[in-house]
Design goal:
Blueprint: H1 10-13, H2 63-80, H3 84-99, H4 103-111, H5 117-130, H6 134-166, E1 172-177, E2 180-185, E3 194-197, E4 207-211, E5 214-217, H7 219-222, E6 228-230, E7 235-236, E8 241-242, E9 247-251, H8 259-268, H9 276-306, H10 309-322, H11 326-345, E10 348-350, H12 353-359, E11 364-368, H13 369-373, E12 379-385, H14 391-402, H15 410-416, E13 424-429, E14 433-438, E15 441-447, H16 457-465, E16 469-475, E17 478-486, H17 493-502, E18 506-510, H18 515-525, E19 529-531, H19 536-549, E20 552-556, H20 562-567, E21 570-573, H21 580-585, E22 588-590, H22 597-631, H23 637-656, H24 663-669
Parallel strand pairs: 11-18, 11-20, 18-19, 20-21, 21-22
Antiparallel strand pairs: 1-2, 1-3, 3-9, 4-7, 4-9, 5-6, 5-8, 10-22, 12-17, 13-14, 14-15, 15-16, 16-17
Helix pairs in contact: 2-3, 2-6, 3-6, 4-5, 5-6, 5-10, 6-8, 6-11, 6-23, 9-10, 9-11, 10-22, 10-23, 11-22, 11-23, 12-22, 14-15, 22-23, 22-24
Amino acid sequence: MELTRPHTAGDACCAPDPGRNTAAPPAHEEGDACCGPALPSRAGADDDEHELRPPWWRDLALLPSALSGLFLIIGYAFEWSGIEIPALVLHAAALLAGAYTFVPGAIRRLIRGRLGVGLLMTIAAIGAVLLGHVGEAATLAFLFSLAEALEDRAMDRAKEGLRSLLSLIPETVRVSRLAGDTTIPAADVRELDILIVGAGERVATDGVVVEGRSSLDTSAITGESIPVDVDPGDAVAAGSVNGASTLRIEATADGRDNSLTQIVSLVEQAHARKGDRARLADRIARPLVPVVLIAAALVAVFGFIVGDPSTWIERALVVLVAASPCALAIAVPVTVISAIGSASRFGVVIKSGEAFEQLGTIRAVALDKTGTLTRNEPAVVDVRSADGISREDLLTWAGAVEATSSHPLAAAISAAAPQRLSAEDVMEDAGHGITGHVDGTLVRVGSIRWLDPGALKGAADDMAEKGMTVVVVEADGRIAGLIGIRDELRPESAETVRLLQDAGIGITMLTGDNERTARAIAAEAGISDIRAEQLPADKAAVIEQLAAVRPTAMVGDGINDAPALATATVGIAMGLKGSAAAIESADVAFTGSDLRLIPGALAHARRGRRIMTANIVLALAIIVVLFPLALFGVLGLAGVVLVHEIAEVFVILNGVRAARRPAALRTLAEVPAHARV
């Protein structure tokens, strides 16, 4: 997978290229930035090369700005010492070094008919030179190029966590072949290959354990700090670190297309669509560029009218710089890429800038029951046996006849059986139950619609009120007892609901289950708004109603949740084990399964929106304040350049703050995995 740098401010100032496919962001080419060219990408172009951002003192991308600043300072030192010729030469060198980073790109964009702040800066620098202010032009070029270089580093810093994800995949892997074990590149692994993962080795792709028992460190993938035990049949994710025992794992995904590479792919597309505030910044910045050019031209014309062209042309150039919307153009992209890159490191994959911004507006959350609030692992939670029948016998009989059944509840009953006996003459009556002989006893196991619980009817009603599915067991024509099966609530569900409610967010539970089961689970979780017996279309309709009142997020993991996920203001898919349809329909996907990621992600997005708002307000305030000061000559070119570029650097640094992990997620990282899975 090729990692390319996303578009930054360039698209914010200028009209998009005709015919550009916005489904995925193109590489950030030189000259494509709003404020000059992007410096060469530091993302590796090969799947196996993930070059990280070098320290600032070794970053060649900062070299032009560093040289420009050095020449500028020495030049001013010579000028203050009265050595004018060397000062002029050094200022010219500083101007060339700084202008190298944005003038070529601005000219190429102009040839394509696209305006940008780089063009404004180019015109201002040329005008300053023509007016004899080479030092001011050099100052402008230095500060402008430095702001651009800092922006590039900010973007690269935000993406380092994303690149490090790919480094979790080993370069080679051992696979089992008919001729013996062999080592191949991890990228060459194909589905159904048998991987041999030794102690301490990383898993190259997603798979299922077929032999061996061990523990896996999944902290880099899901944030779970405690190793997770795995046995044959358990799924494992790419990038997990194996514990002390060797595992044989059957690959369920190719080496180049697994859960880890999918995460990276989704985050790389984060700028393919821009959010409302990004579009707001675009709407302001795009017309502002020609407006500034026209305003500067009118100021210059006014100078000829009043008979003082030199003064007013100089002011026109200062106005040109003062009203440049560069800070506005980078206000949102830096924040968005920082926040999205950071979110991916703590298990929240946000597919677009729009999704990130919308996530910060959410005031209601709809939660699917099965697999989201609950474990989606039905288990025996209650057993009521008839007089003279022991609990052990009841479960043993039921487990024996259910051992070969494909019914979803059969596995739960078999797992609860204390003894493993074989049943004979097993016959399954679809929709009703199953019959078989166990040690000479005729055993029937089925629903209360097929087998009347008789004297245990009161117990059956009580179990049903608690949200259990009631299974009746009959032995030789006599009701032997009842087995209550329920998909248990996740241990963190109630805490998650409380955290959301404390944040002022309304909670709704959606489920296809019956009203009685739904109310039992909802009561345990602390949810009062329940919508039961919902088909996929019904769920989508409920979400549409909720979203019409206030921004609503839908959280689900199944195929039946896909319509609702697509309808919601923000769709959130729980865990990479969710259905492909759910993940595809969602705007946000969690790599882990802990529900407390929801309030953490919402807090992260709200904070990011606040930072974006502050950046936009600051960028506009700079233009509003500097424009009249420049127009009436209060500030000269050097002063305007200094204030403007300092503000731009502040906007960048403020945007990078969005990468900080919110307190809710820092706390979650300290919770043991066994309490969160």
